[in-house]
C-alpha cells in the first residue's frame, strides 16, 4: 500500500530539548516536504527536498533542519524547540504536484 | 512568492444544497491548482485538481473552475451530504511540487 508514515504521532517535550520527527514514503517519489498547520493559517511549508541531498527552505524554516540522505526518508529536526513551534506537522511526498500526506505529528513544546 | 487567499473561512449549508469555495492567487505563472479535504483529526487528502490548460473539471458531485485572467479558481460541491463536512484547502503551484495553500474553509453540512 502506498503510504507516507510519520513518527511519532504525538509528542510533548520541553523547551530546548532536541527532537526528530521521522517521515518515510514507499512511493519512490523524488519530492518531499514538511508543513506545519496552525489554526487560521492553513498549511505552511517549512522545508522541501527535490531529491537526495537536495533540500531548500520553504516559507517558515526558522528553527528547523532537515536532511535527505535516502530517497524514502526525510526527517525534520528541531535542534532547540521553543513554545512557538507547538503545532501540527505534516510530511508529504509528491508526484506531478499531487501531494500525499503523512498522518501528522502533534507537537507540544512546554 | 505566491499568495493564495481563500473564502469563506466557514460555510454552513443544508444537506442537498450546493457549496462554493473561492480562492485567488497572485502569481500568474502558477499553473496547477489542487483542492484538499481534511476531516477532523485526519490528514489532508487530494479530492480534485486542475491544470491551467483546462477551465473546468468535474468528478461526480465536485467540480473545480479556473479563471486564469482573473487569477481565481473555485470548488463546487453539489447535493451536499453530511460526510462532506470537513476543512477544505485550495493550493497553487508553478508546476513543480511547491504548493502554496489557502487558509482553509470549514464546511458544515446540516442534516
Topology:
The complex is a heterodimer of chains A (110) and B (111).
Chain A: E1 4-7, E2 10-13, E3 19-25, E4 31-38, E5 42-51, E6 54-57, E7 65-66, E8 76-78, E9 87-95, E10 98-101, E11 105-109
Parallel strand pairs in A: 2-11
Antiparallel strand pairs in A: 1-3, 3-8, 4-5, 4-9, 5-6, 7-8, 9-10, 9-11
Chain B: E1 4-7, E2 10-14, E3 19-25, E4 32-38, E5 45-51, E6 56-59, E7 62-67, E8 72-77, E9 86-92, E10 100-101, E11 105-110
Descriptive key words:
heterodimer; A: 110 residues; mainly beta; 7-stranded mixed β-sheet; 4-stranded antiparallel β-sheet; B: 111 residues; 6-stranded mixed β-sheet; 5-stranded antiparallel β-sheet; 11 strands; 0% helix
Description:
The complex is a heterodimer of chains A (about 110) and B (about 110). Chain A is mainly beta. Chain A is about 0% helix and about 55% strand. Chain A has no helices and eleven strands. Chain A has strands at about 5, 10-15, 20-25, 30-40, 40-50, 55, 65, 75-80, 85-95, 100, 105-110. The termini of chain A are far apart. Chain B is built from no helices and eleven strands. In chain B, the strands form two sheets. In chain B, strands 2, 4, 5, 9, 10 and 11 form a six-stranded mixed β-sheet that branches. The chains are: A mainly beta (about 110), B mainly beta (about 110). The interface between A and B is medium-sized, with 25 and 23 residues.
Number of strands of chain A: 11
SSE sequence of chain A, one letter per element: EEEEEEEEEEE
| SS-based class of chain B | mainly beta
What is the tally of beta strands of chain B? 11
Rounded mean pLDDT of chain B is: 95
Alpha-carbon Rg of chain A, integer: 13 Å
Number of helices of chain A: 0
Q: Biggest protein-protein interface?
A: A-B, 25 and 23 residues
| Helix share bin of chain A | under 10%
List SSEs of chain B in N-to-C order: EEEEEEEEEEE
Uncertain parts of chain A = none
Q: Approximately what portion of the residues of chain B adopt beta-strand conformation? A: over 45%
Amino acid at each position: 500500500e502506498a503510504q507516507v508514515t510519520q513518527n511519532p504521532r504525538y509528542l510533548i517535550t520541553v523547551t530546548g530539548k532536541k527532537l526528530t520527527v521521522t517521515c518515510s514514503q514507499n512511493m519512490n517519489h523524488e519530492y518531499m516536504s514538511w508543513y506545519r498547520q496552525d489554526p487560521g493559517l492553513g498549511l505552511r511549508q517549512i522545508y522541501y527536498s527535490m531529491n537526495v541531498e537536495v533540500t531548500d527552505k520553504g516559507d517558515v524554516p526558522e528553527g528547523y533542519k532537515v536532511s535527505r540522505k535516502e530517497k524514502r526518508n526525510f526527517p525534520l529536526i528541531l535542534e532547540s524547540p521553543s513554545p512557538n513551534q507547538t503545532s501540527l506537522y505534516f510530511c508529504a511526498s509528491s508526484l506531478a504536484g499531487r501531494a500525499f500526506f503523512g498522518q501528522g505529528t502533534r507537537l507540544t513544546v512546554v | 512568492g505566491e499568495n493564495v487567499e481563500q473564502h469563506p473561512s466557514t460555510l454552513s449549508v443544508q444537506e442537498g444544497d450546493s457549496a462554493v469555495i473561492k480562492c485567488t492567487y497572485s502569481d500568474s505563472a502558477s499553473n496547477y491548482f489542487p483542492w484538499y479535504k481534511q476531516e477532523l483529526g485526519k490528514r489532508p487528502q487530494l479530492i480534485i485538481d486542475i491544470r491551467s490548460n483546462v477551465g473546468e473539471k468535474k468528478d461526480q458531485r465536485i467540480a473545480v473552475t479556473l479563471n486564469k485572467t482573473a487569477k481565481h479558481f473555485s470548488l463546487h460541491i453539489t447535493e451536499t451530504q453530511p460526510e462532506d463536512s470537513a476543512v477544505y484547502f485550495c493550493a497553487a503551484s508553478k508546476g513543480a511540487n511547491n504548493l502554496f495553500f489557502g487558509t482553509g474553509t470549514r464546511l458544515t453540512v446540516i442534516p
